[in-house]
Specification:
Length: about 525
């Protein structure tokens, strides 16, 4: 396909946005330490249960943290004005003996392409939707989060329109939100399109966050920001209420600092949605935390996708260390080969162009407002070039607008090809051949410099998201190490609805490595 990994990759912001490490440290000298640094959901629950902290106090601490730190990172696009009131109500419930779930009183950030029927906006980062009517209802999984007792803290910045506007886009840049930066080194890109969610969680601006993925938009920003990202099987989490790219690949998923938190958040997000028929065929577990097993590697058979090795010597060293951890944990490793690797990208891109036009037009029509079609958005961008297109254009928008409807034979053939090559002849075939529980691969190489002039990250980029993304299969990335102070993650992916196996493996790997470390150049607890 034309973009190397169009959801993951992009050039980034102008030199005016670059902040040196020395300037970063200087800017932090008067900042207070943060006493919730690296707190897990379980730790927050324990503090509330013991009466040492309330949901309101936790929410206020994160709001204060955002005020102090996010001026450097620019990851949060909007705060929920009702967050403290929501926390108060949940505290009253707890005091009365009612605790809804493990998410009761836990602050959550949502990517700004996720509908909320509240006082916040939902814009996909575009100025075109700033004045659009408030969504009539929450996205289905947001409703589930509220029912579980989560505190919706705010919305995060993203690559505008989930990085599907231009081949030359900047990951983490939107017309509404500007450029998000990587909290590990602020002149580096946070990857996209769930860039704000990844950067915010990495910087301890919220307990957990939700991102969305079509191809790599959870995996890449999670890996590159040193956190856990979990893209579930297509249909496990409802797609309704999410500004779409393509229904055959889109899903929301947890972005957290630990595998345990990802399992807790996933519990609260899954469910059958009458308005999204694919969820009726899903096979959710009652509790994904039951698979958090420290010996989860014992007896596991893991395929090693060495087609992703050999592109970056330093990444390979991290991978070899990770493989030794897997073996030491009792896993059997089997080198695997995907004969279809590199053969489905063009078909995937064509599918996304067709489905983007169809799905976005449906969303915009239902949302209401001035801009009701992709053609309307193209016109808006042209009329507002100085604000919406100061760095890159809308070539993907134009390509998508030129596509006919989904009855077109070329679309149906491309969809069939992309699924067969990634499912039947791809992941399913490889797993069946060697009786595997999961596939291991590098998630990404270290991130690239923010630089609109010179373009994207260059030829050393590594990304393994596409096989599972196109297949609609689950994929989890876990921190594995650092290269020059920048995080590197590894991925475990598998067949449809193999989330339990992936959680076991990822959790055991995480517990054996403890590779996650907070950014050095942000204030931490003393």
């Amino acid at each position: 396909m034309k973009r190397r990994d169009f959801i993951n990759l992009s050039a980034a912001a102008s030199a005016a946005l670059v902040i040196s490490r020395a300037e970063t440290i200087s800017a932090q000298t008067d900042m207070k330490s943060f006493d919730l640094e690296e707190f897990t959901v379980a730790q927050l629950q324990k503090a509330m249960q013991a009466g040492k902290m309330t949901a309101r106090e936790i929410t206020q601490k994160y709001l204060d943290r955002i005020a102090a730190v996010d001026k450097m990172i620019n990851s949060v696009i909007e705060l929920n004005p009702d967050a403290l009131q929501i926390a108060d109500a949940l505290d009253k419930e707890r005091k009365a003996g009612k605790v809804r779930s493990q998410m009761h009183g836990i602050p959550v950030l949502l990517k700004d392409n996720i509908d909320t029927a509240d006082k916040m906006k939902t814009t996909a980062g575009s100025l075109a939707l700033l004045d659009a009517p408030t969504p009539k209802r929450d996205a289905f999984f947001v409703q589930k989060l509220r029912e579980a007792g989560a505190v919706i803290l705010g919305k995060t910045n993203l690559s505008e329109w989930a990085n599907f506007r231009s081949n030359d886009s900047s990951s983490g840049w939107s017309g509404r939100g500007g450029q998000t930066r990587n909290p590990y080194i602020l002149d580096r890109n946070p990857c996209g399109s769930s860039s704000g969610s990844g950067a915010a969680v990495a910087a301890n601006l919220a307990a957990v966050a939700v991102g969305t993925e079509t191809d790599g938009s959870i995996l890449c920003p999670s890996s590159i920001n040193g956190i856990v990202g979990f893209k579930p099987t297509l249909g496990l989490v409802s797609r309704s209420g999410v500004i779409p790219i393509a229904h055959s690949q889109d899903t929301a998923g947890p972005m957290c600092r630990t595998v345990a938190d990802a399992a807790v958040l996933l519990n609260a997000m899954v469910g059958t949605d009458a308005s999204d028929s694919i969820t009726t065929t899903a096979k959710p577990e009652k509790d994904y935390t039951q698979f958090l097993q420290k010996d989860g590697l014992k007896g596991a058979r893991i395929g090693v996708a060495r087609q992703y090795f050999g592109r970056n010597e330093r990444v390979d060293k991290v991978l070899e260390t990770a493989l030794q951890v897997l073996k030491d944990g009792g896993a059997t490793l089997v080198d695997v080969n995907f004969p279809t690797m590199g053969k489905f990208g063009d078909a995937e891109f064509q599918v996304l162009l067709y489905e983007f036009k169809e799905d976005l037009n449906k969303y915009l029509a239902a949302r209401g407002g001035k801009y009701r079609t992709l053609a309307d958005l193209i016109k808006f961008n042209e009329e507002n070039k100085d604000k919406e297109m100061p760095y890159f254009g809308q070539d993907i928008f134009i390509q998508a607008e030129a596509k006919p409807n989904l009855e077109d034979r070329a679309y149906r053939l491309a969809l069939l090809q992309s699924k067969v090559l990634t499912q039947d002849q791809g992941i399913d075939a490889v797993i069946k051949k060697d009786n595997l529980d999961a596939i291991f691969a590098p998630s990404n190489s270290p991130t690239w410099m923010i630089d609109l002039v010179s373009g994207d990250c260059g030829g050393s980029y590594i990304g393994s998201s596409s096989l599972a993304a196109v297949a609609g299969y689950p994929n989890i990335t876990v921190p594995a190490g650092f290269i020059s102070e920048l995080p590197v993650g590894v991925s475990f992916f598998g067949g449809a609805f193999t989330e339990p196996k992936l959680i076991k493996i990822a959790y055991a790997f995480e517990q054996a490595t403890k590779a996650r470390k907070p950014p050095k150049f942000l204030p931490t607890a003393k």
